[in-house]
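Here is the promised in-class demo. Please do not try to memorize the tokens; focus on the logic of going from shape to residues.
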């Protein structure tokens, strides 16, 4: 018998597929007829941008390859294919949940505290009603009726949430709610467009085209922006591919090439520096909104932070007792947009005044940046500050920050760092000292109002 890592080929290596690291293997000739796929592609769920050299991905694909080889050996030995698949899925699911799948005899020998920990996890996370999760954690004592090939469209979000549970563990409660809400809305549109809640493995290209037609009609009627329609279509396609990859269903990619043409290229026009200084920083302009929202606005003007980054600063990430006061953007209790978002930003001008007034952060808006955006966008609208229409918003201030830096002569590398954008190549440190960063920010610093 061949080794678990080879089946007639060299060591495994991760393959970049649509921005994620994959294990890709051809089904050996000896298995054709037992495994009907020609090629197996298994996602590690590790983004290439997060692991550019594939170090973590290499370990992940080796683990996937061992499981795949064990599955193939079981097929060759003549074992029941359904039982093999059920046990393999249970093993992978238990690993995702942080446990090891055990056969019933081994489960019965577990210490009672460990068995209790498994049962408590099932109840605490609401998985006690999911027979596939119960089977994965408490062994063969509960036979699952769940079948991966018959997940319905309305169940896609829950299923992918379970598949990505380890990656999602870094998200804050608000981020998890937002993730679920946007995807539930997108899958609901698929059910509406095809008129039924079909099993995922029975979806066809015609169903995908019906989804595109649904969003195209809404865009033509002015109900949604084209970019929003494309985002919804992309979400459904991503959920579909994740389920297909994870359960090795080898489903055709029916959601490819569905984008609607004509989307906006710049959805949030920036404010000018003069407008920021003469209007947004005018004396008393925002005195009537709550102090935390006002100070967050001032902080964003001088730092270019994303609203979610600004709202989630804490006492430990606000560094005022330093020769160069600054804030640290870190994944504290939440997931950052990317690794490039993790950065240190000096405080100058009105941002420094605002943070001196809020040294412990912004508890009113912590993990609730949507509420901040609602308050400040309403305030901008009421004051007539959204002159270019509703496409101009709080986020336009961040775009203004980027323009101000470039107009001051800052190099692209400095702008990308301060904005928290990914650089063109691998990042080996930011290459900028706090002194360098403060020097660039001082060049674009605005005159603060007397009261923050």
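The designed amino acids, position by position:
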């Amino acid at each position: 018998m061949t080794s678990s890592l080879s089946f007639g080929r060299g060591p495994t290596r991760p393959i970049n597929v649509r921005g994620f690291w994959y294990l890709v293997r051809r089904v050996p000739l000896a298995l054709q007829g037992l495994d009907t796929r020609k090629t197996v592609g298994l996602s590690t769920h590790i983004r290439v941008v997060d692991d550019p050299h594939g170090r973590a991905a290499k370990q992940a694909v080796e683990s996937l390859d061992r499981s795949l080889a064990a599955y193939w050996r079981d097929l060759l030995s003549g074992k029941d294919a359904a039982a093999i698949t059920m046990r393999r899925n249970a093993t992978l699911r238990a690993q995702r949940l942080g446990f090891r799948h055990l056969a019933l005899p081994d489960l019965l020998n577990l210490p009672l505290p460990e068995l209790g920990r498994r049962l408590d996890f099932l109840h605490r996370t609401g998985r006690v009603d999911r027979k596939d999760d119960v089977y994965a954690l408490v062994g063969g004592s509960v036979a699952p009726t769940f079948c991966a090939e018959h997940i319905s469209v309305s169940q896609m979000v829950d299923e992918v949430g379970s598949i990505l549970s380890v990656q999602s563990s870094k998200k804050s409660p608000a981020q998890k709610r937002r993730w679920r809400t946007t995807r539930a809305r997108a899958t609901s549109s698929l059910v509406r467009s095809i008129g039924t809640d079909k099993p995922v493995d029975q979806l066809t290209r015609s169903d995908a085209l019906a989804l595109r037609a649904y969003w195209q009609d809404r865009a033509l009627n002015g109900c949604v922006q084209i970019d929003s329609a494309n985002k919804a279509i992309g979400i459904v396609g991503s959920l579909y591919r994740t389920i297909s990859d994870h359960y090795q269903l080898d489903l055709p990619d029916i959601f490819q090439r569905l984008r609607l043409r004509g989307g906006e290229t710049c959805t949030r026009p920036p404010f000018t520096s003069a407008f920021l200084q003469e209007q947004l920083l005018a004396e008393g302009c925002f005195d009537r909104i709550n102090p935390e929202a006002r100070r967050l606005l001032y902080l964003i003007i001088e730092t270019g932070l994303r609203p979610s980054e600004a709202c989630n600063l804490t006492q430990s990430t606000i560094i005022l007792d330093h020769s160069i006061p600054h804030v640290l953007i870190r994944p504290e209790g939440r997931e950052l947009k990317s690794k490039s978002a993790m950065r240190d930003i000096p405080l100058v001008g009105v941002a420094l005044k605002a943070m001196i007034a809020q040294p412990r952060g912004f508890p009113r808006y912590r993990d609730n940046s949507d509420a901040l955006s609602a308050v400040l966008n309403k305030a901008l609208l009421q004051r007539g500050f959204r002159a270019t229409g509703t496409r101009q918003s709080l986020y336009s201030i961040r775009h203004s920050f980027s323009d101000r830096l470039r107009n001051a002569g800052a190099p692209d590398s400095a702008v990308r760092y301060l904005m928290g954008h990914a650089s063109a190549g691998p990042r080996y440190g930011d290459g900028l000292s706090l002194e360098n960063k403060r020097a660039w920010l001082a060049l674009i610093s605005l005159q603060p109002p007397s009261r923050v």
